[in-house]
Amino acid sequence: MYRVTLIPGDGIGPEVAEAMKQCIEKTGVKIQWDEQPAGEHAIAQYGTPLPERVLESIRKNKVAIKGPIVTPIGKGFRSVNVQLRQALDLFACVRPAKYYEGTKSIVKDIDLVIVRENTEDLYAGVEFDLGTPQTQELIKMINRLQPKQVREDSAITIKPISAFASERIIRYAFEYALKNNRKKVTAVHKANIMKFTDGLFLKTAQKIAEEYRGRINFEDVIVDNMCMQLVQRASFFDVLVLPNLYGDIVSDLCAGLIGGLGIAPGANIGDEIALFEPVHGSAPKYTGKNKVNPTATILSGVLMLRHIKENKAADRLESAVREVIKEGKFVTYDLKVNRDDPSAVGTREMADAICRKLG
Ligand code: NAD
């Protein structure tokens, strides 16, 4: 019996989390779910969207899976998702993007894995708001220290990229490639413009690539060029390693390439703890409507099963998902050619169809 922390989350979270739980249970793997509230619901009850008990549960169980959690834009609380990754030092965000027959994927020969640095870069949370004394002091200092002048009416976000975090994520990407029979790591950056921060990331990648020479191929690609190449020839890529912001954006691009957010799973990995979650957010307009695709969360469950070494159950569940999508009968609106197709089923019905395939 495994113990896994389950955070249903906000919006469509509880519905897709329930679907995932049902499918995992159907594989026969015995899991005791330690359900924990986080996000909007938790604020009312605990005065914070991330109660300490959630972190304690994850630290104890070491494995967690979550639905999406709302982040109010521009005000209120910091992103719970970012806080979780930072508090638990889940430094690697791993997001596979692969083709399943029957999806509206615009590329068919895609099978790559995104490894995104999760703890620093512009997501580190070092921000200075417009007009505060701290911001004014910082701007004065910046303008004194170097010739490029920052306007006084600026807000500032700091982009720290460290040698430590770069080395850790790049090494993780190479090790992931080795363990998963992948052939190539591509480092994605903008070192031509951000010579120091992205420059450090690139130099670190080049240094570590030397250690894997002859076992794993290496190349680097500038992020804007990467976006174009992904659309034109995604099959050329295998494992991508990126700093935080580019990783976030390129993940959504790849989710789009494989047929939408509804089928894009993810994992946040640390030295000891792993937290699985779909790439998509809480899609508030669909809350409680039994409408959205549970696949991204179910496939996040597949990644979780692989993580706890229940590989057979993981393969069976992935095959069940693959078959249901290929048949195209019991699928949600986003997998239909026409999104208004009245034959689309709901979240629960798609999960039921996947469970039926599991026997
Ligand atoms: P979103 O992913 O919630 O939704 C964007 C659109 O994608 C939806 O309107 C819907 O059309 C589609 N979509 C998303 N999930 C789907 C699914 N399972 N099946 C079918 N279609 C699906 O993005 P958003 O609207 O930018 O964000 C809403 C909220 O979610 C925000 O508060 C944001 O901060 C949060 N968010 C959380 C996470 C997370 O918890 N990791 C990730 C992204 C966004």
Which percent range fits the helix content? 40-55%
Structural class: alpha/beta
CATH superfamily of the largest domain: Isopropylmalate Dehydrogenase
Radius of gyration: 21 Å
Structure write-up:
The chain has helices spanning 13-26, 40-46, 52-61, 80-87, 133-145, 163-179, 197-211, 223-233, 244-257, 295-307, 311-327, 347-357, and strands at 2-7, 31-35, 63-66, 92-98, 111-117, 127-128, 156-157, 184-189, 217-222, 239-242, 265-269, 274-278. It is α/β, with parallel strands linked by helices. It has 3 domains: 1-96 and 262-359, Isopropylmalate Dehydrogenase; 106-115 and 161-257, Rossmann fold; 124-160, no CATH class. The chain has a 10-stranded mixed beta sheet, sandwiched between helices. A hairpin with a 4-residue loop joins strand 11 and strand 12 (274-278). Helix 1 (13-26) packs parallel to helix 12 (347-357) and helix 8 packs parallel to helix 9 (244-257). It starts with a strand and ends with a helix. The mean pLDDT is 95. The structure holds nicotinamide-adenine-dinucleotide (NAD). Nicotinamide-adenine-dinucleotide binds at residues 16, 68-71, 81, 261-262, 277, 280-283, 285, 292-293, 296, 334.
Give me a quick take on this structure.
Helices cover 42% and strands 16% of the residues. By secondary structure, the chain is an alpha/beta fold. The longest helix is centred in the middle third of the chain and has 17 residues, at 163-179.
